[in-house]
Design a protein that fits this description.
The structure is a single chain. By secondary structure, the chain is an alpha/beta fold. It has one domain: Glycerol-3-phosphate (1)-acyltransferase (3-Layer(aba) Sandwich). Strands 6-5-7-4-8-9-3-10 form an eight-stranded mixed sheet, with helices on both faces. A hairpin with a 5-residue loop joins strand 1 and strand 2. It is globular and about 65 Å long. The chain starts with a strand and ends with a strand.
Length: about 280
């Protein structure tokens, strides 16, 4: 709880828990309004304009998604003073890579897409079935998580365009666990991201997200805005596998990435100001 100070500077009674609940509810409503009305009113016209401007529609949609999510993070920073956001400055230099990251919260793709204007990612198949969201995902060049049914053609087109997209400086953002970890440990990997990296001869950037699950907890509707928290986005390693080498093994590459993420989970990491290599976002 946050203590309040009296006129003589001494701490008085802590703020009542119901007040924290009111703040959490208010901030949550603002964020959901941004996601719905903000998208339709402020960003919708730009998406429609991007749709009719001819070639490179996917890149324009990606840039708009990036700006939309940066706006979301900006609102979080303004309305949640007890939430700190520490972004590894080395991430800004990641280009033409498959970014492999752990997954602990729905906040994770928002935070990563907010870092890169030229990006694509893998989305669950069912999301492509929603009227507006599916339209947005298709026009952003995002990949379905599985090549099935009427999404098989979309997957083939996205994969065919992926080598040129990565070579031109774009990044593919992937959460290889496929679902959120409930306890922060690294779950089993799907091989899809690593197969795409091999197909495109692309380097890998291994990234660790920390503490986003403390802000937007699994199974909760309200954001936990009043508890002190530091969210971190850290570049752990950049790998350039020898895909054409006789000793290359996709299984070994997956095991290497998993070991890097697991080691970072086990190690003590100090997120207080002045410690470590992370900078404020």
């Amino acid at each position: 709880m946050i203590p309040s100070a009296g006129s003589d500077g001494a701490a008085t009674r802590p703020s009542p828990r119901w007040l924290f609940g009111v703040v959490d509810f208010g901030v949550t409503i603002v964020l959901w309004v941004y996601f719905t009305l903000g998208f339709v009113v402020f960003f919708g016209p730009f998406y429609l304009l991007a749709m009719i401007m001819g070639p490179d529609r996917h890149l324009r949609f990606q840039k708009l998604n990036h700006l939309f999510y940066r706006g979301f993070i900006t609102i979080c920073r303004l309305l949640m003073p007890r939430q700190q956001w520490r972004i590894d400055p080395r991430l800004a230099g990641v280009r033409s890579s498959v970014i492999v990251c752990n997954h602990i919260s729905y906040m994770d793709p928002i935070l990563l897409i907010a870092q890169y204007a030229r990006h694509t990612t893998i989305a669950k198949n069912r999301l492509f079935g929603f009227p507006i969201l599916g339209w947005l995902l298709r026009n952003s060049g995002y990949l379905p998580s599985a090549s099935q049914g009427n999404l098989a053609g979309l997957t083939s087109r996205c994969l065919a365009a992926m080598p040129a997209f990565l070579a031109s400086g774009g990044n593919l953002i992937v959460f290889p666990e496929g679902t959120r970890s409930r306890d922060g440990t690294v779950g089993a990997f799907n091989a899809g991201a690593f197969k795409i990296a091999r197909l495109c001869r692309a380097p890998l950037a291994v990234v660790r997200i920390r503490n986003t699950n403390r802000l937007f907890m699994p199974g909760k509707f309200l954001f936990n805005t009043c508890s002190a928290n530091t969210h971190a986005l850290e570049l752990l390693a950049q790998l350039t596998p020898d895909y054409g080498g006789t000793n290359f093994s996709l299984t070994d590459l997956m095991a290497q990435v998993r070991a890097i993420l697991e080691e970072s989970h086990e190690s003590r990491f100090d997120l207080h100001a002045g410690r470590g290599s992370l900078g404020d976002s």
